[in-house]
Amino acid sequence: MRGLDLGAIDWSEMGTATLDTLQMMGYATLFTFVIGLPLGVLLFTFSRSQSLVLGWVYRLISLIVNILRSVPFIILIVALIPVTRAIMGVSTGVEGTIPPLVIGAAPFFARLVETALREVDRGVIEASQAMGASSFQIIRKVLLPESLPGLIAGMTITVVTLVSYTAMSGMVGGGGLGDLAIRYGYYRYETGVMIVSVIFMVILVQVLQMLGDRLVIFFTRR
Amino acid sequence: MIELKGITKIYGTKKTATTALSGLNLSVHKGEIFGVIGHSGAGKSTLIRCINLLERPTEGEVWVGGVELTKLGKRELQQRRRKIGMIFQHFNLLSSATVYDNIAFPLTLIGTPKAAIAQKVNELLALVGLEEHRHKFPAQLSGGQKQRVGIARALASDPDVLLCDEATSALDPQTTDSILKLLLDINKRFQLTILLITHEMHVIQSICDRVAVIHEGGIVEQGPVTEVFLKPKHLVTREFIHREAAGEEGLKLAASVPHPEWSRLVKITFLGAKTYESVLSQVVRETGVNFAILQGTISTIKDTPYGQLTVSFEGEDDRVERTLSLLRERDLDVEVIE
């Protein structure tokens, strides 16, 4: 068992890997939010709809969301290679991992959004209807502000999940800290690189979780 | 102002159908405070929610301010709803918005300019006495304060009608009275028509002009509060009133007290200024009969004083008869019990 030899670590590669992870996480988070939030709102709205048609639309979207959530992410990445290539032009590197990350995480986030919206007091929605608010106004001025702490908590969980997903994307040449840990640490027995990469990821997750928790507390008015 | 014609509301599918309202008619005049009283499950919640179509009646017409709401499209209904304020038992305020923003909410829905909103909200804050709490969130307020925010919010869009859905049922008696006082004040100041539902006779007695008693999805009795309160006809109405006045029990007790055979048990009802006059003693002095008060209440219904006494008269038959007719001549309501 060798000691942890920090001198043997290629710090510039470590730096690049960290930046790659942050980039993947950042873009994936952005698109997950942009796609997942409206999807979650739709799920919530359709699930409560009296209309038969929308009821079926809800079941359909719900089914797709469940399928995407149940396929193991590592398989999703491989299965999505043609799609990724069609969207980004490449299927490897930072760009190549973003589509599978988003497609994997957006349905997950959408479910969390739906759950957060369900927590909104039914009476408040009713009061807004009584005041003549339109459906869109209810979503924008009642549902979203009222469920903000829940939405932030959901986003935090999603971002943390994305960090672990970025690690898996290393398997298909995605780059980043997870990739580094596997290539050097696991395949080449460079334990030092593996440990440092993992420590970086642990720190990243800790910071993200703390930030999320702080925001939830800040926006909780109950 | 509010007109319900043949309202029927059936919940559930054909198999599980439960009828909440059956062919109900109701008419509320402009500027009055109209109370609907009923036990839980009688249909009063459904009734009030049918007025702004939070619940769509299965059958029947809803008219508010001369417009048939049941005929309107989605957009027009949204517009009309802005003129129908509503307050709730559990207040239903936005927990994520301050007192100020809650009151401003209906105005932001219609895109009112900021300056106009500020002016209106400040007026309303003063009206409900919450100026110092404008920056607080609902969780920091007491129940009574929350309901005041609810009232201010309901008034922000200058409604013609205010619907009160058990507005005081979650409040303690003292707070209830202060909220009722505020409602009465608003009614007088703005000539605002108020329809309230409640299960407390006290609420009806304090502020309502007219009352309807709802039972099993239909109105069983209605009229001016003084009339319904003092001469209840339906069993359910009596229950509500006697829970408040403890009358029936007292009367039973009075009747069971041994009294001379020749005496006559009579219920006398005073209404208005006469309540405080010495009518009874003047009359008995003239006819020379004796009386004992077995049970009695003197109180007010809204602003009208009333008194109700159960009295046993002792004396010769013709003298007692003359006493009763003299009392009737003085416009008292006299009911011979035995």
UniProtKB/TrEMBL annotation, chain A:
It is found in: Cell membrane. One of its GO terms (biological process) is D-methionine transmembrane transport. The keyword Cytoplasm does not apply. InterPro entries: AA_ABC_Transporter_Permease, MetI-like, MetI-like_sf. Its main location: membrane. PROSITE patterns: ABC_TM1 (PS50928). It is a multi-pass membrane protein. One of its GO terms (cellular component) is plasma membrane. Belongs to the binding-protein-dependent transport system permease family. CysTW subfamily. NCBIfam families: PRK10782.1 (NF008049). This is ABC transporter permease.
UniProtKB/TrEMBL annotation, chain B:
Keywords: Amino-acid transport, ATP-binding, Cell membrane, Membrane, Nucleotide-binding, Translocase, Transport. InterPro entries: AAA+_ATPase, ABC_transporter-like_ATP-bd, ABC_transporter-like_CS, ACT-like_dom_sf, MetN_ABC, MetN_ABC_transporter-like, NIL_domain, P-loop_NTPase. Gene3D superfamilies: 3.30.70.260, P-loop containing nucleotide triphosphate hydrolases (3.40.50.300). This is Methionine ABC transporter ATP-binding protein. CDD domains: ABC_MetN_methionine_transporter. PANTHER family: AMINO ACID IMPORT ATP-BINDING PROTEIN, METHIONINE IMPORT ATP-BINDING PROTEIN METN. GO terms for molecular function: ATP binding; ATP hydrolysis activity. One of its GO terms (cellular component) is plasma membrane. SMART domains: AAA, NIL. The keyword Magnesium does not apply. It comes from Paenibacillus mellifer. It comes from the Bacteria. Belongs to the ABC transporter superfamily. One of its GO terms (biological process) is amino acid transport. Residues 2-241 form the ABC transporter domain. The keyword Cell membrane applies.
